[in-house]
Write a structure and sequence with these properties.
By secondary structure, the protein is an alpha+beta fold. It has 2 domains: 21-160, SH3 type barrels; 186-328. Helices cover 53% and strands 19% of the residues. The chain has helices at 79-105, 110-147, 162-170, 174-178, 182-224, 232-283; strands spanning 3-6, 11-13, 30-35, 40-48, 52-57, 60-65, 69-75, 301-311, 317-328. It has a 5-stranded antiparallel sheet. A 4-stranded antiparallel sheet has the order 2-1-9-8. A hairpin with a 3-residue loop joins strand 4 and strand 5 (52-57). Helix 3 runs antiparallel to helix 6 (232-283) and helix 5 (182-224) runs antiparallel to helix 6 (232-283). The chain is elongated, with a radius of gyration of 29 Å.
Amino acid sequence: MNERSKIFYFRYSGAFVLFFFGSGLFPLQAEIVTMKDGSVLHGRIVGQTMNHVRLKTTEGVKTIEKSKLKKIQWVKPSVSQKQASAEELRQKKEKARKERERIAKEELAKQEKERLLKELEAQELEEKQKAAQERAERAAALRELVETEKMEKPDGEAISYWDFAWRSILIPGWGHFKIDRPVMGSIYMGATAGLLYGIYNTRRIAKNATKENHQKEMENFLLSVSPGVIDKNLRIAYSMYSNTMALTVVQKKVDNYNHSLYLAASFYGFQLLHIIYNGFAWEKGLLIVKQDMPDRRKGSIRPQFAVIPQIDGEGRLRPGVFGGFSLHF
């Protein structure tokens, strides 16, 4: 979750590769564990039990009693560590891709090819499930350590659903990028941008309509206090016309603006509930990335599109297309 990208605004990605190949990112983040007896251990917290914490070190996984812990310091990964881990993951993905190509090119019966491909997919899914469960166990252990004040909240590493939710509260879709859902994040961000434009546009139309209606009311008032200027019947007709316009056309434009607000608020609430739901699933180790996403290289630009609900000038809900681009850096 240390790579960054931009999509008109900001987007976060890069961590999705963790789910593809087991624990490839484990070397990136480590902790310095200080015991009450003064000894110090280096490793990565990978889980816990009621009374123990499991620490993965270069010598294997060690089980440490919680009562003997003094403090734990989270260590931010270095640039070289991130690059080495990213290269390792790239090589594993490339190996899996070549294996698929090899199976496809071999002179095998169709059923045999399908069987081999299904076995490969099942193996990859198993690795993703294992990685998701390991991440959930680590997050649970870190949450408890933070709550018991044995460790400060890791800077940049998610440990609970709230780490995703607060981002989507600020910018709809941001939390989905953080939780490795860049496609959904793009849709939510794009749709939100379209809805905000719809609010701006319908408000502009409603404001102009009410201003024009106010001018007509003033004209009506001036005609009513100047009986000798215009014929009585014409004054009555003009007054009825102005009232009809205020109750139909002007009110409809005001209603369109109100409806655009309701639509945007409903959409905002929906995306917030969605990220909270995904966050709870992430905490349980149930969030699995099933689709293989293309590699993002620094300097690459990718188009992004989203279908956006919009309210037109007539008050009708219609789909619109939002286009943008993402720049990976």
